[in-house]
Design a protein that fits this description.
Layout (H helix, E strand, L loop, with lengths): L3 H15 L4 E2 L16 E3 L4 H13 L4 E4 L15 E4 L6 E5 L4 E5 L4 H9 L3 E2 L12 H7 L6 H4 L2 H4 E7 L5 E5 L11 H5 L8 E8 L1 E2 L3 E9 L2 H12 L7 E5 L1 H4 L7 E9 L1 H18 L5 E3 L3 H4 L3 H4 L6 E6 L5 H14 L4 E6 L4 E6 L5 H17 L3 E6 L2 H4 L10 H13 L15
Parallel strand pairs: 2-4, 3-4
Antiparallel strand pairs: 1-2, 5-6, 6-10, 7-11, 8-9, 8-10, 12-14, 12-15, 13-14, 13-17, 16-18, 16-19, 17-18
Helix pairs in contact: 1-2, 8-13, 13-14
Amino acid sequence: MAGTSGLDALLDKLRAAVGAAHVLTGADRSPFVIEGRTPDVVVFPGSAEQIGTVVQQAAAAGVPVLPWGGGTAAAIGPPPARGLVLSLKRLDRVVEHEPGDLTVTAEAGLTLDALQTALRARGQWLSLDPPDSARATVGGLIAANASGPRRHLYGTVRDLLIGVTVVTADGVVVHGGGKVVKNVAGYDLPKLFVGSYGTLGIVVSATFKLRPVPEEERLVALTFDGLKDCGAAARAVLGGDLIPAAVEILDAAAGAPLGLGGVALVVGFDGLREQVDAQASALAGMAAALGGRQASTLPASAWARLAAPARDAFGSPAAVMSFSVLPTTVSEMMEQGMEAARRRGLASAWSAHAGVGAVTGALSAEREATTVAAVLAEWRAMARAAGGHATLVWAPLAVKSAVPVWDDAGPAGRIMQRIKAQLDPNNVLNPGRFVAGI
């Protein structure tokens, strides 16, 4: 890490490169503090070329570079002790929208809500609905591979991304993919950066494939006496003839803010109005056979609240952990996790994108770190026993020091380390942030 004189020299170079108004020091850095750790400097480049210059200057000074979009995933991974936060906020334009081709190219600092507003004005949308869409940025979506309930039908960022421009660890601007959907020549470079948490390169802009805005959207909820019955109902829906856009399981705590009285199966439909009417009616007709109570239709605003209902069930959760398990084991994972927390005197909230086996558990109440860590360790063991894995999405630093954020990646981790060594041999970008210490 650069000393005081070295940092001063770096600050002078940064101000010359991007303008003094776009280099923050002192108290202005407070919005970028992560768990009490303050970056040395926050820089706002205005172009890919400026990003490349900043990365080169930081690398030469021995200062790690921490890419920053909207900050929605900043707490995932071990927080850096120090470094240079490189914010993409100034890169916030829709570069090109081709409605006839159903594609859009947008800069990395553009928020998802702003992008969707621009697209919907032309009758199209990007079929992603992650949490915190008002803050989540295009670059952040790619870095975190963020998604929401509609992942069930439309997939994740990996399925929608067709082109990307990134700045590498040596400050070079690289383009991968293209601007058309049918683009299969060579290596699929854009996919390499999806879910890499800014450790391989800094996304500058991206091209996505789009869909027409659906004529109708609807959420139908069935409530159950317990998670076991709800899980069985979800499996019946998944194995049937319906084509839902979302299949969600919420326990009583996660469903309470939505006005759901107990454990609930929430199924979302979108498309032509006649199709939505038919499928919603079919699900309502199945309610009794599935063991659920009478179906109810949720307001349109509930779609956004389904992105992270377990996390949002508590005003200030003690910890949040996500799990990837087989869809057939979702309700069992939720039941066992709830009981593990209860045994240690902690309440929990649970939700799942049931069709893809993506589960989230949150702990309430402030308790000593050792108790919270013990519950999280048991949750992770449960996920592993079911053939899945767990990620600590949020927890205080004291808990993170006791419970690893990431699971052991095994042989895949060694491959990822080799890729990191090739693309960032000096460990400049987000060092130590990701799996296997990458």
